[in-house]
Structure formats: C-alpha cells, structure tokens
Amino acid sequence: MNYKLKKISGDASFREFYRVKKNNKTSIIVFARKEQYKNLIVYSVVNKILNSHNILSPKLLKDYYKDNMIEITDLGDKSFYDYIKNKKNKLKDYKKLIELIIKLQKIKLKNQYYFSGKKIKFAKYSLKYLHKESDLFFDWYLKHFSKNLRLGKIKKILKIELNNIYKKLYFKNNYFTHRDFHASNIMMTKKGLSLIDNQDAIIGNPLYDVASLIDDVRIKMSKNLQDNLFKHYIQKSKFRARDQSYLKNDFDILSVQKNLKILGIFVRLYKRDRKPNYLKYLPYTWALIERRMKNPIFNKLNILFKKNLPLKKLKKAKI
Q1: Whose CA is closest to 90, among 222, 288, 230, 236?
Q2: Which of 59, 80, 235, 301 is deepest in the core (most CB within 10 A)?
Q3: Cβ(257)–Cβ(212) below 8 Å
C-alpha cells in the first residue's frame, strides 16, 4: 500500500494536521504538541456526540493517543469562509448556519463520557469563566499596547463593571455551546455543512454561538445582514415574544465579552505562538465592540473605557 503524508494548514490551537493518502483514499492525522487531553480526547468525544445527533463532524478512524495522535476522516479544504467571503448575497447561506446552531442547542449532554480510559465532563459557563476569558484583554492586549498605564488599577476598575454586566445575563447556561462557531470552522462537504474545531464545547448561554457567528471578526457583515440573522434566530428558536429584549441584551453582552477575549487571544497568538496573521482582524474587532456597546447596558462601561483607556490610540494601534 502506498502512503503519502502532507502537512496542511492548521488553526490557533497547539495541533498540527497532516493529510494521509493511502492509494486513492485520504484521512487526516491530528498531532497535538500540547493539551493532548482537550485537543485529542475531548475533541474525539465531541465529534462523536455531534455525529450521533446527525450533525456532521470528523469521525475517529484510529486512536493513537499514546503517541499524541488520532486519525480522523478528511472533510476536504473548502470552508464556509472560503465559500461566502466574496459572495454578495449572504443571507440565505448564513440562515443555514443559524439553523445549525439551533440544532446544536437541542443536544442534551450526559453527566459524563469516557474515551481511551479518560472521563470527560463538560463544564458550564460561570462568572468566573467569563472573567477568565475577558481577562485576556487586560493581560495580553493592554499589556502590549499600553505599557505606560497602571494596568493593575485599570483592570480592577473595569472588571467590577464587567462583573455587573455579566450578572445581567438573563438566560441560564443550559445549552450545548460550540464556543468557536464561525465561518472558518464550518466545512463545505458533499454531505453538507460539517462542524470542526469542536474541542472547546461547553454548556452555556444560547446567545453565545449566535454572537460568535453574527459578530465574526473574520467577515465584515452589514448591520442589515446582522439584524436579519438575529431575527431569524429568534423566529426559528421559538423563544417567547417577551424574551426578545433579553435575547438582545444577552447577545450584546456576550459579543463584547467574546471580542474583548479575542483582542487578547490574537495578541497572544502573535507574541507567544508567533502567528501574526490574526493581527489584521484587530480593527474590526474593535468596531464590533463599539457597535454592541451602544446598548444602554454598557453606559457606565463606556464612561470607564473613555476615562481609563487611550481608546483612539488602541483602535489605530499597529504591531
């Protein structure tokens, strides 16, 4: 049997991906340099859960966990991002992704799962978890761009208000949450849309993945398209009419939280992991934060941002 091995483009994780060609069939080897438990075991379990609920994702072919590897099915090279980025009318296609999120949210996770002798239990989002993520904004982004600021004091002031805002989230953490649901993590296959990069799944707020998709920093959407997609989620998810204001508040809060995190992650990818490609998304990430912080729920945080941060400098900053 003839084998050919070729390294293919990866993602923001510590994983490396290789396409294996055996005669006329291909598969993917996933090699994890670090965080093997999450990147191999949890990843395999989430993929199995998704496939069992008729949501396409990579299937495990062979487990080489002792060697820090697994072999999975090959979903090809065409992502939804590649498909949609230059398309003028995006609404119809994006509606399908909203419906995929709703399908995900119908999954009821068990208390625990097992894989390769390991026990897996999915965590729930909590205030502590939300802060752990948005702390990346202070610990990486601000630390890099604002070296003359008293970061400890500023972080303390802003975190108090962020905590007040996070406490205003209305919906409970009872929903399957992919946690990185965006156009680059959806593959276009002959069988349909397939979901990848699934290892960060958690039990969370129903608006988290919706905010990840609609406020995706990689694709600039018009406000009209964003609003129509949000309306489509409300219609298809069948929340009560009186829940709409709560849905919008949770969406805005989680969008700001996630994009503060992203500012920190993208600088960390540059500084720690030598992946500068993500820096080009920083200006649009700020634009999305500004757009959502027009909600009156952020009035005090807006004042504190203006008082304590050099916003004009930060939004134009280049590395």
Answers
A1: 222
A2: 80
A3: no
235 near 241, Cβ under 8 Å? no
Phi, psi of 272 (to 5 degrees): -90, -40
| Cβ-based neighbours of 191, under 8 Å, separated by 6 or more | 56
Which CATH number describes the domain made up of 3-73? Answer: 3.30.200
- The SS3 of residue 300 is helix
Q: Contact 97/213 with Cβ under 8 angstroms?
A: yes
Give the CATH number of domain 80-316; options: 3.90.1200.10, 1.10.10.10, 3.40.50.1970, 3.40.50.10490: 3.90.1200.10
Token digits of residue 302: 């807006």
- The larger pLDDT score, comparing residue 22 to residue 113, is at 113
- Largest Cα–Cα separation, the chain: 67
How far apart CA 237 and CA 243 sit, in angstroms, is 11
CA-to-CA distance for 165 and 254, rounded, in angstroms?
10
pLDDT band at 9 (very low <50, low <70, confident <90, very high): confident
How far is CA 231 from its chain centroid? 21
Using an 8 Å Cβ cutoff, are 272 and 12 in contact? no
Closest to 166 measured CA to CA, from 136, 201, 125: 125
Size of the chain in residues: 319
Closest CA to 281 of 302, 306, 294, 264: 264
Return the closest-CA partner of residue 288 out of 219, 228, 206.
219
pLDDT tens digit sequence for 120-150: 999 999 999 999 999 999 999 999 987 777 8
Q: Which amino acid is at 63?
A: D
